[in-house]
Amino acid sequence: MATQKTDVVIVGVGAVGGILAAELGKAGMKVIGLERGPRLTTQDFSALDELRYFQRQELRPSSKRQPVTWRPDAKTNAKPLPILNYGNQAGGGTVHYGALSWRFHEDDFRARSHTIERYGASAIPADSSLTDWPLTYADLEPFYDQAEYELGVSGRAGNLQGRKTDAGNPFEAPRRREYPLPALLPDQSGVIFAAAGQKLGYHPFSSPRAILSQPYQGRAGCTYCGFCQSFGCHMAAKSSILVTKLPEADATGNFKLLTGTMCYRVNSDNSGRVTGVSYYAADGSDNTIEADLVILATFIYDNTRLLLLSKTAKFPNGLANSSGQLGKHLMAHIGARVFVAFDDRYVNIYMGPSAQKHSLDDFNADNFDHSGMKFVRGAQLSVTPADLEAGPIGASISMNPPPGIPRWGAAYRDFLAKYFARYAAFIAQTENLPYADQTVDLDPHVRDQYGMPAPRLTYDWRRPNEVARIEFLLNKLEELGRASGATHVWRSPTGSGAPGAHHEGGTRMGSDPKLSVVNRYGQSWDIPNLFVIGSSTFPTMSGFNPTLTIQALAYSSADAIVNRYKKSPGALV
Ligand SMILES: Cc1cc2nc3c(=O)[nH]c(=O)nc-3n(C[C@H](O)[C@H](O)[C@H](O)COP(=O)(O)OP(=O)(O)OC[C@H]3O[C@@H](n4cnc5c(N)ncnc54)[C@H](O)[C@@H]3O)c2cc1C
Fold first, then answer.
1. Interhelix angle 188-199/464-483, nearest 10 degrees
2. Is 140 in the pocket of ligand 1 (CB under 6 A)?
3. From 117, 334, 455, 485, which residue has the greatest number of CB atoms within 10 Å?
């Protein structure tokens, strides 16, 4: 067993771990990053290998070696999820993500208060743990700005210092300045979606993405090749942590990355502090790092699992869990989907898919009046050139032909031959409410390749509020489909109650130590030298993809650690 000493150990060097590594390294702190996967390079992605990256999803964790199990309720046996939505290499999910980079709305940060003010407390389902965040949009705005400019995000402002514009998203919260890069060019599906939205009086716009529309900071602009989501970018035009923050961290001379290392425990003494972490190295050896500061940045499953596995006599229900909130309030996006297919136009989904998505925000958050409706909160609506995004999930027309078309034989062949290059999918990415009984815990029956119990999700989105929302949104998507002039418009099944994309919760942040695991900086209420960063800390989820928000939170935590904690280690308030 080897033991090393350092100022800071960061477990997981992905979307947020990479930011913390660079920012703390720049402040002179000695940082070791533990990352279970390899460190790949842009050259590794020059083979645009659809079998490896798209069908086999090689950049995601293997569901056999790193299983995460799911059951709809506590009475049912959990089974491994077939596909996992996060990273497995230095840079984490940002290496192969779609790079949609959203700021949350102002009311996303105060969903509970806002709902009560506008509709009364009875509008919130009695069993929901809907709450406010311990910080506001205004608190996070400088860090959103820092993330957009340091990483490189392309888009068009919809609200510049309170001045609204239809060129961008008029529902966005005020931003201090324009995006650093102009919006990406639309593809056919974006053109179709935008025209349909405008026809109905809605406000479509080009979705912001951490993909360079022009050369920026020494990196080339996007060539619209189409190999984005599920692939690493062979041009380095995708602003992944691999090509943005890791080189910055290296340049500090204070950062050491240990790849192929699997953390299995956070170590602590009886003084109310953590002392470091233990991990298995690639050669199978069992090692320890002693550190003044431990930062968990492993995504929600291991952020929760490691605390549960690190229980002590003082914390018998999981480290840093005196509130009893650890593992609770799991949330996920559900993608309601409507297909549109045209007799008279090609959509050509193989030209630049994923880089050029369009969205509309008219039915997201509380951007529309919910009076008289049986649900609160909404969804971001968008278009996706479906097949290349769908991957092995099968959310494509080949798996979901319209009613009346069989799934085999001549009629199926003829349908696909005609429509495969003439369709798109309109999608609603829903903001589902938090519920305390939706949980992450340790599976007593399934273990991973290291013999650790798998993270187990207990979750079923089919609650009355969520079902009513999905029905409303599917109707809106069908309305948009008809307005697009499509010959065929049909719904894709909404499926089982399984969690969809972007899992959140498990180590909730809050302003009350009795009701949350960490404070607004991700610092444990119980153990001041332990931080937990990422979407596991989200109190609520928003209809937007989470990554820019967790990255802004990572910058905010880094700022608090460097400018306050480092000078006076202790609880940050
Ligand atoms: C295909 C795909 C598309 C996506 N598209 C978008 C999008 O368009 N927009 C958006 O906002 N989000 C998107 N996401 C989600 C996004 O990738 C995540 O929100 C983000 O990566 C989470 O950041 P993180 O730092 O918390 O975790 P990650 O980026 O996953 O990083 C965590 C790292 O920790 C490592 N790790 C885990 N456990 C351990 C351990 N015990 N020991 C050592 N290392 C460990 C992992 O290998 C990983 O590299 C997408 C995800 C996928 C999979």
1. 100
2. no
3. 455
* Cβ 11 under 6 angstroms from ligand 1: yes
Which residue, by CA, sits nearest to atom 30 of ligand 1?
Answer: 87
Say if ligand 1 is within 6 A of residue 71 CB: no
Is the CB of 230 inside a 6 Å radius of any atom of ligand 1?
A: yes
Residue from 84, 97, 280, 548 to probe ligand 1 pocket by mutation (most atoms less than 8 Å from CB): 97
Q: What is the DSSP letter of 22?
A: H
pLDDT of 392 reads 43
Strand blocks (E) in 228-261:
255-259
The neighbour count for residue 536, using CB atoms within 10 Å, is: 32
Instruction: Extract the residue ranges of the chain whose pLDDT is less than 70.
Output: 349-356, 385-395
**In angstroms, rounded to a whole number, what is the distance separating the alpha carbons of residues 472 and 478?**
10
- Is 85 a pocket residue for ligand 1 (Cβ < 6 Å)? yes
Whether 370 is catalytic: no
What does the block give as tokens for 186?
Answer: 């639309």
Tell me, using a 6 A CB cutoff, whether residue 506 lines ligand 1.
no
- pLDDT at residue 352, as a whole number: 61
pLDDT in tens, 481-540: 999 999 999 998 887 898 988 999 999 999 999 999 999 999 999 999 999 999 999 999
H or E stretch covering 414: helix 409-419
Query: What is the token pair recorded at 351?
Result: 């030209």
Give pLDDT tens digits for 208-237.
999 999 999 999 999 988 888 889 999 999
Does residue 390 sit in helix, strand or coil?
A: helix
Judged by DSSP in three states, 478 sits in helix
Give 3-state DSSP helix, strand, coil % of the chain, rounded to 5.
25, 20, 55
Kindly state the tokens that stand for 13: 């060097």
Kindly report the number of other CB atoms within 10 A of residue 26's CB atom.
16
Tokens matching residue 480: 């948009």
Which of 114, 329, 502, 503 does the annotation list as catalytic?
Answer: 502
pLDDT at 454: 98
Domains, the chain, with CATH or none:
3-565 (3.50.50.60)
Task: From 16, 258, 287, 299, give the residue whose CB has the most ligand 1 atoms within 8 Å, as the site to mutate.
Answer: 299
Closest atom of ligand 1 to 264 CA is 41
Q: Are 90 and 471 in contact (CB under 8 A)?
A: no
- Rounded CA gap, 261 and 34, in Å? 6
| Ligand 1 center to 168 CA (angstroms) | 27
Q: What is the pLDDT of residue 214?
A: 97
The residue whose CA is least distant from atom 45 of ligand 1 is: 12
Is residue 25 within 6 Å of ligand 1 at its C-beta?
Answer: no
> What are the residues facing 216 on neighbouring strands?
219
